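Annotated sample (chain length 573).
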Amino acid sequence: MRRRMAWARAVAAAGLLAAAACVARPAAAAPRVLSRGWPGPEREVSALLADALRAPGDSLALARARTALLARLQAMGHLDARVSAAWADSGSDAVLRVTTEPGERSRFAPVEVALAGEDSVFVARALAPLAGQFADPARFERALAGALEAIEARGQAWAQLTVSDWRAEPGIVRTRVTGALGPVVQVSDVRVTGLAVTQPALARRAMGRLAKMPYRPAEARAAADRLMQLGVFRRAEFVGLEGGADWREGVLAYRVEEPRYNRIEGAVGLQGEAGVIGLLRLELGNLLGTGRAVALDWQRRGRGLSDLQARAREPLVLGWPLTIEGSVAQQLQDTLYTRDRFGVRGVLNVGARERVEMGLEEERVVQTSGSVRGVDLANTLFALSRDGRDDALSPRVGTRARIAATQVARRERLADGSRSRSRAAALDVVFEAHRRAGPRAGWTLETAALGRLDGDRVLGEYERTPIGGAATLRGHDEEEFRVDRAWRTRLEYRWFLADRGERLHAFWDHAEMETREASIEPGGSRVVRERADGLGLGLRLPAAGGFVDLDYGLAPGRGALEGRIHLRLVTAF
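Output written by the structure step:
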C-alpha cells in the first residue's frame, strides 16, 4: 500500500512539473519574412506570401507564393527578375528568407502593326496606349483583346491578331502584331432554338430587325434582353455568330428556355364558424404561342364573402416592349357592400428583369347602410418592380422588389342625397429575398408595407386592407383584421429533401397594424394599433407538374387545436 501511495505521489508531482513547464514555455512566434532586394514596399512581399506563411514548411504553398512574386515583378516591368525563397530556423522562430534580383525595368516601345491598308491604322491606334508603359505581358494581352473587341464592334467578326515578334532589349520591349481583319459580316439569318410553344414570328418581332443588317455584337446581345422582356421565356441567351460557306455572312444563334405556361392553383382552409374557405386560380399563358394570356380568379373567404376577377394580357403593343393588361373584378362583402372594379394597365419592360407599370382603374362601391351609400373611385397607379429570382414558381435564390403608389380620387353619394369629393393615396411596397444556407437548406424573407394614407379620416370598410390567412398571416382566419395600414413579414427556413422540390419549412409570420376608428365623441376618432404573429410548420410535395403545400399555423396564446390548416395545390402544364 505504501509503495502504491508513493508511486501516485510521484506521478502527481511529475504532472505538476510538466504543467508548469508548459505554462512557463513561451508561445511560438508567428512565422516572419526576411526580404532582400524587393523593389517595392515590404508589406507587398508579406501580402503575396500570406498563404506560405500560414503553412510553414509546405513546399507547394511556397512554390505558389514564389510564382505570385514573379508575376508581380513582371507586372512592374522586371521581365528578367529572379526570386529565391526558403524556410530557415532562427531559434524557436520560423523564418522565410526571400531574395529578389529584379534586374532592369523595361517599357513597351510603340507596337509595330503589319496589316493591310487602313486596318493597320485602326489597330495601331487601339494599341497606342501601350507605348511607354511598363512591359507587363498580361497588360499586352488585355490590350490585344480590347483591340479585337473594337474590331468586332465594327462588324468584322472573323478578325485575327497574332504577336509575331517579341524582343526584349535593354530597358525596352519591341513587339510586332500581324493578322487579318476580314470583311464586315452581314447577318444572313437569325436562328432561335428551344421554341416549342412560342411562334418564331413572335420571337423575331421581339428581337427587332437583325437579318440583312451588318453584324453588331452589342445589338445582338441586346436582342437576347428583348426576348426576356417578352415575358414568356425562363431564360434567353445569345450563343454567338455562326459562319457558313461565305465568310462575308453569318447566322445569329440564340437559345431560349420555355417554362410551363398554364397554371392551376387551388387552396382550401378551415376557418372557425365560416367553415371551408378556398380559392381557385386559372392562368393560361402564351396562348397558341402568341404571348397573350388570360387568367380567372375566384376566392371564397367565408359565408357571403367572395371575389371574382378576370384578366387578359396583350404583349408587344405597337412593336414596343409594352404589355397591356385589362381586368374586371367583383367583390361581395356579405351584407356590407358590393364592389365592382375594371381597369387597364401598361407594363413597360426596361430591362431583362425590370418593369415600369402605369394604370387607370375605376371602382364602384354600393353600401346598404351607413351615411355613405355609394362611392366612385378613380385610381391612378405607378409602380416599379424587379424580379431577380431563379424561378418564379419555386425560387431558391434571388430577390424580388416592387413599389407601387396609387392616387385615389373619391366621389361619395351620401344617404341624405348630397355628394362629396376627396383625394387620398395608397402605398404598396414588397421585398422578397431567397438565400441558400447549405446544399440542402435555405431561407426566405418577405416584408411588405401597405395601406391607405388619408390623414385623420376614418376609412370605410371597403377601403381597408385585409390581413390574415394563407397569403398574409398564417395561423389566423382569412381577413381576420381589416386595417388602414400594415407592415408584415414572413420568414421561412427550408429543408430541401430532394431535387424535385420536396421540402419542409418552419415559418414565422408577423404583422404590425394601425386603424383609425370613430370614437364616442361626435366627429372624433382614435388610432388602434395591433400586432399579431403566426408560427408553424409546412410541407411541400411535387404533384402533377406542380406542387402541394400543406401549412399548419398557430397564433401564440391559442391551443394546438385552434391552429389553422392551409392546403394549396399548384399545377403547371
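Annotation: The domain at 186-257 is CATH 3.10.20.310 (Ubiquitin-like (UB roll)).
Annotation: DSSP finds eight helices and 28 strands in the chain.
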